[in-house]
Specification:
heterodimer; A: mainly alpha; 9 helices; globular; B: mainly alpha; two-stranded antiparallel ribbon
């Protein structure tokens, strides 16, 4: 149990997927202008990471390894994520119109989000078992959602502040991310 | 030939993939803590984008519009797998240092973006020029970022085992934070701000 907990905390805080491993930076830099959509995006990514890492584990251990075709895992993972996102989009549209509207365009964008494929590759690299990879998926999703929420909250305030001309736009967001990463590096001492 | 030169130059300064377009930042920030890794990643990037732009441009009339993104992803992922195996066989130290970021080239927004926005609409020679320009722009940006990060984070510059020089004080007491993710964000932010200040980048 404590092992599962340390996997979760490890991916959510200590080796935070966005600030330490640089996965899924595009939505953090691009999408996170308002708190609401940012959290929605985070939850959608968490859902996709969770389901696709389950499918990827099954595909890896029951199809690729017996056939000795591990070198194909990148292509298989991309197909799993792509079709997962498509199915999720159709299901949500049929069952929960309101939730579908609130996810909007972001759902399709997740298909090329490096956070999702990154977690699947990390799971395969660490050769986690089924439960461990699910916990890792949840941890990564929680870390991603946390950073999305923090970043969008800070950016709402940044709109009001007086920033030097050259620093406006992208540079100040990078500096903000650097300070957030500095804060998160404090979690490094939490390893147990 | 002027078309070729124009597409080639565009990628280096005017729409530099890293500093201006701000695409494909995962590999840029993750592998720039040493120059070796930056050069290895630039090589992999160049191989993948040139090969995939070439193939996609050749096949642009055959790919049905409705499934084009999926086809692009499969083509790119194939080349990424090939490059991965080449690196694993010939330069294993760089391969293991790059880790999952090499595989992540498959979902690189820049490569996919060039396939969608350029190679699928233009003729082969222009697509090749575009890929070459983008590769050089990407490589220069990575070398610039990793130069500062290695200089401050390690106190000297070492390329593929050959020590070029070591700074007097920093050599003994490097600012190791520049080797971590904080340094990546900080150097990137300051460089973009610098380019905006001297007017190379107009609006981001």
């Amino acid at each position: 149990m404590s092992e599962l907990f340390s996997i979760f905390i490890g991916l959510a805080l200590i080796n935070n997927i966005v600030l330490v491993q640089f996965l899924g930076l595009c939505p953090v830099l691009g999408v996170s202008k308002k708190l609401g959509p940012a959290v929605n995006m985070g939850l959608a990514v968490t859902l996709v990471i969770f389901i696709s890492s389950a499918l990827a584990w099954l595909a890896n251990n029951y199809i690729l390894v017996p056939l000795q075709a591990e070198y194909l895992h990148l292509i298989i993972y991309l197909l799993i994520i792509g079709s997962m996102v498509q199915i999720l989009e159709i299901l949500l549209k049929r069952t929960n119109e309101k939730l579908y509207k609130s996810f909007g365009l972001y759902l399709a964008l997740i298909a090329t989000n490096c956070a999702v494929i990154g977690v699947l590759l990390l799971n395969a690299n660490e050769s986690y078992n089924f439960i461990e990879s699910l916990v890792a998926a949840l941890g990564a999703g929680a870390g991603f959602t946390l950073v999305m929420a923090l970043m969008s909250g800070i950016r709402e305030k940044l709109e009001l502040s007086n920033i030097p001309k050259a620093m406006k736009g992208l540079p100040v967001i990078f500096i903000t991310a650097a300070l957030l990463a500095l804060a998160f590096s404090g979690f490094a001492g939490m390893l147990f | 030939m002027s078309g070729f030169a124009k597409e080639f130059k565009k990628g280096i300064v005017i729409s530099n993939p890293v500093f201006v377009l701000a695409l494909s930042l995962c590999p840029v920030l993750a592998v720039t803590n040493t120059l070796d890794k930056a050069i290895g990643m630039s090589g992999a990037f160049a191989l993948v984008i040139i090969a995939s732009n070439l193939i996609i441009s050749l096949m642009r009339k055959m790919i049905p519009d409705i499934v084009r993104i999926l086809v692009f992803i499969i083509i790119i992922a194939t080349f990424v797998s090939i490059v991965e195996m080449l690196f694993q066989a010939y330069i294993p130290t760089i391969y293991s240092a790059l880790g999952i970021y090499l595989s992540l080239l498959a979902v690189n927004c820049l490569i996919l973006g060039r396939a969608e926005a350029f190679a699928s609409k233009n003729k082969v020679s222009d697509s090749l020029a575009d890929a070459l320009g983008m590769s050089i722009g990407f490589c220069l940006a990575l070398i610039l970022i990793s130069f500062f990060r290695e200089l401050l984070g390690k106190g000297g510059i070492t390329i593929f085992g050959n020590e070029l020089f070591t700074l007097p004080v920093l050599g003994d007491h490097p600012i190791s934070v520049f080797g971590m993710s904080i340094g990546a964000f900080l150097v990137m932010g300051l460089l973009v701000a610098f380019f905006k200040w001297i007017g190379v980048i107009k609006d981001v």
